[in-house]
């Protein structure tokens, strides 16, 4: 019996708590709606700053207030604050429970993205809107425009990418040419320096060579050597060398002397024979 009484008290407490919670939620929803209503009136008066404050109050009272987030997003869009508008409309699309509410939120998101030249993102937004309401011709028409815009932007990006690559290639070629030119200049400069060094060495050698030359410009050592060699050559020229198959002058001289001696001997013999055959006078002629 005691257990039953406790259970009854607990159920009554839960029921009372639920009623209080429901009353609180209903009160918050009513306040949120009131703020949204006031915000809509301010929008009609073109007082978007005050309208934004009322919509924020509505969301603060009821974070799931679809009307508050949706209308705040539209207010941002009218002011030209596209990023804030997309954020609030995405919030409305997330908390929306009906397809009609989701369709409106995504449709407006696509429109705002098109305004911001974000065509590729707009295509996805319009697709999401059509999933929730395939019969909306306006959304389908906007989807076609978004696709065409996205294609043009992609082509432009590709062109810019190619131009950038070409520019980078040109800059690389220009840099390579500049480096090659600098290397050539450095090489030419080095060649000139080496040439100057060689010239200095040549001048030095020439000077040293001049020190070794006499007044006539001939090398001293060479002249002395040449003089010595010249005397030797002169002597050799004065004493001709025997040619193969011929007698030397000395041999000819010896041969002539032998012939003269032989001839003299023959002459003497002939004279002796003449003397022997001549009659000797014994008496003198007076």
UniProtKB/TrEMBL annotation:
Natural source organism: Algibacter lectus
Keywords for the protein's UniProt record, in alphabetical order: Signal, TPR repeat
Name of the protein in its database record: BatC protein
Chain spans, region Disordered: 148-257, 267-286
SMART domains on file: TPR
TPR repeat intervals: 103-136
Range of residues in the leader sequence: 1-18
Compositionally biased intervals (Polar residues): 247-257
Taxonomic lineage: Bacteria, Pseudomonadati, Bacteroidota, Flavobacteriia, Flavobacteriales
Stretches with biased composition (Basic and acidic residues): 158-238, 270-286
InterPro entries in the cross-refs: TPR-like_helical_dom_sf, TPR_rpt
């Amino acid at each position: 019996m005691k257990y039953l009484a406790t259970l009854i008290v607990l159920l009554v407490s839960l029921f009372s708590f639920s009623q209080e919670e429901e009353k609180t939620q209903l009160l918050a929803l009513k306040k949120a709606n009131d703020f949204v209503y006031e915000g809509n009136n301010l929008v009609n008066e073109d007082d978007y700053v005050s309208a934004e404050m009322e919509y924020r109050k509505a969301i603060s009272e009821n974070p799931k207030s679809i009307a508050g987030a949706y209308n705040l997003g539209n207010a941002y869009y009218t002011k030209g604050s596209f990023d804030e508008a997309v954020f609030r409309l995405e919030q409305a699309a997330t908390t929306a429970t009906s397809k009609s509410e989701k369709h409106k939120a995504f449709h407006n998101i696509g429109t705002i993205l098109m305004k911001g030249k974000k065509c590729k993102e707009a295509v996805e937004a319009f697709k999401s809107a059509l999933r929730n309401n395939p019969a909306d011709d306006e959304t389908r028409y906007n989807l076609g425009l978004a696709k065409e815009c996205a294609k043009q932007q992609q082509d432009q990006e590709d062109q810019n990418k190619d131009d950038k690559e070409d520019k980078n290639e040109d800059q690389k070629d220009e840099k390579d040419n500049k480096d090659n030119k600098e290397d050539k200049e450095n090489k030419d400069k080095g060649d000139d320096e080496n040439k100057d060094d060689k010239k200095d060495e040549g001048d030095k050698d020439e000077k040293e060579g001049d020190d070794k030359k006499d007044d006539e410009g001939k090398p001293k050592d060479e002249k002395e050597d040449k003089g010595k060699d010249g005397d030797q050559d002169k002597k050799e020229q004065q004493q001709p060398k025997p040619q193969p198959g011929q007698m030397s002058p000395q041999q000819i001289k010896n041969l002539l002397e032998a012939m003269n001696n032989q001839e003299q001997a023959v002459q003497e013999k002939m004279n002796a024979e003449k003397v022997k055959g001549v009659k000797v006078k014994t008496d003198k002629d007076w």
